[in-house]
Amino acid sequence: xxxxxxxxxDSVQAGGSLRLSCTASGNTYGSYCIAWFRxxxxxxxxxxxxxGSDRRTRYADSVKGxxxxxxxxxxxxxxxxxxxxxxxxxAMYYCAFRxxxxxxxxxxxxxxxxxxxxxxxxxxxxxx
Length: 128
What we know:
By secondary structure, the protein is mainly beta. A hairpin with a 6-residue loop joins strand 4 and strand 5 (46-52). It has one helix spanning 106-109, and strands at 2-7, 11-13, 18-26, 32-39, 46-52, 57-59, 67-72, 77-82, 91-99, 117-118, 122-127. The chain contains 1 helix and 11 strands. The N and C termini lie far apart (40 Å). Strands 2, 4, 5, 6, 9, 10 and 11 form a 7-stranded mixed beta sheet that branches.
């Protein structure tokens, strides 16, 4: 079992920055993918960024160059640094974890929502 707890969501002006955190507990050892997803009202959940236990990353085209995913293994914490925020980034942001035998495939999983464990989400609202 893995438990995920997101934090850091807030209301900001367009052009601002936020850093989201996701603290993981439980069986987070071994090979895995961990990712940020988001879901805006009336829209499907979409992958934002993913990082594997091998440190490979991938970003959605809509956030590439603005968002950075990173993790601090000593703190069991995943981060998402979001810069140059726009109203289109407004959404509930979720952290998700997926054990995998092949961490090199994690970039492929960004377009899939079949992650095993999910957090409760943290709200990001960007106003113009």
